[in-house]
């Protein structure tokens, strides 16, 4: 039997099945490759997100100009800013202390929040006890 693979109309049933099986395997391999790439991208996105959340300072020294950070070293300043960006305002607004002081001049607790951030600056300046 002579097969003319250039003209699909001449294929026999077995050849058609074999070709269809090959197509299905190629499609399955493509799907698997796509799933692997999607998984790798998801893992990459999670790593980037995790790193961005590790030491995020949304409101920095320039945003909280009413607080003096000049006496702190770079690492002490980062510690104080992270604490101010992590602690919450207690007026019920849901903002952080740094966000409240930087953006909400009408907050009834703003002056108290400035005092709290100044305390965080003082605590960041103090030497930490050895473990």
List the helices and strands and how they pair.
Layout: H1 13-54, H2 74-86, H3 97-103, H4 110-125
Helix pairs in contact: 2-4, 3-4
Largest sheet: none
Number of strands: 0
Q: DSSP strand (E) fraction? A: under 5%
**Quaternary structure state of the chains depicted:** single chain
The low-confidence runs, each spanning 5 or more residues with pLDDT under 50, are none
| Average pLDDT figure | 86
* Form type: rod-shaped
Helix content: 55-70%
The rounded distance between the terminal residues' Cα atoms is 85 Å
Structure explained in plain terms:
Helix 2 (74-86) runs antiparallel to helix 4. This protein is rod-shaped. The protein is an all-alpha fold. The protein has two domains: 10-54; 56-131, no CATH class. 60% of the residues lie in helices and 0% in strands.
């Amino acid at each position: 039997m002579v097969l003319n693979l250039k003209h699909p109309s001449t294929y026999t049933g077995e050849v058609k099945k074999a070709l269809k099986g090959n197509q299905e395997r190629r499609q399955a391999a493509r799907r698997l490759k796509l799933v692997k790439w999607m998984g790798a991208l998801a893992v990459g996105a999670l790593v980037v997100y995790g790193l961005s959340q590790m030491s995020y300072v949304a409101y920095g020294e320039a945003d909280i100009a009413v607080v003096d950070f000049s006496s702190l070293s770079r690492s002490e300043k980062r510690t104080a800013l992270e604490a101010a960006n992590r602690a919450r305002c207690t007026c019920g607004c849901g903002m952080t202390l740094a966000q409240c002081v930087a953006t909400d001049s009408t907050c009834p607790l703003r002056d108290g929040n400035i005092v709290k951030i100044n305390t965080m600056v003082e605590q960041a300046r103090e030497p930490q006890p050895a473990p």
